[in-house]
Amino acid sequence: MALEFPCNFVLVCAMNPCPCGYLGDPSRRCRCSPHDVRKYRSRISGPLLDRIDLQIDVPVAPFDRLVETRKGEPSAVLRERVQAARERQLHRFRDSPTRANGLMTPKEIQHYGQPAPNGWALLRRASQQFGLSARAHTRILKVARTIADLADSPQIELAHLSEAIQYRKLDRNPDL
Ligand SMILES: [Zn+2]
Question: How many CA atoms does the CB half-sphere of 94 hold within 13 Å?
Fold first, then answer.
């Protein structure tokens, strides 16, 4: 018997990088051993981690940065770029029930998720270095397709793929 549990949600979560919380912090010394870090991170199961598309480091913001008045890209501009990328996806999948890159079927990934020449070599290297799973591969290609859409690029360039690979922070060996 096949059961379906339809759901559509965005999961956003945060964790410390290690038990003491200071791994990678330039101002405080982390007291954890690589073994401690591995044990701590293994509390999140691999299959669950695999399904988290964007895994990033959020470094502690120094005080100067918190009070800095210089602004990044305004939200309104960002919104327009995101909307344009969404429209590109709606157009791409106009003949399919798929509505966004993240929901591409394996066949659609084959069709729309092919990276630029050398892309496969880069993905293979990253995969060997970080021990990425097949699911992580698929996730990387979907995210890379979206990064390319945000840049209005018909092709997934090496820069888009590299950026997507960088978002697999927790797949990596903590010793690296
Ligand atoms: Zn630590």
Answer: 4
- Distance from residue 29's CA to the centre of ligand 1 (Å): 8
Domain ranges of the chain: 15-44, 83-176
Q: Structure pTM?
A: 0.83
CA gap 75, 81 in Å, rounded: 10
The rounded Å distance from CA 49 to ligand 1 centre is: 20
| Residue 39 CA to ligand 1 centre (angstroms) | 12
Q: Tell me: pLDDT of 162 over 70.
A: yes
Sorted by sequence, the CB contacts under 8 Å of residue 155 that are 6+ apart come out as 116, 148
Our CA angle for 58, 63, 69, nearest 5°, is: 95
Q: What percent of the chain has pLDDT over 70?
A: 96
> Do 173 and 130 meet the contact criterion of CB atoms below 8 Å apart?
yes
Long-range interactions of 123-127: CB distance < 8 A, separation 24+: 123/161, 123/165, 126/165, 126/168
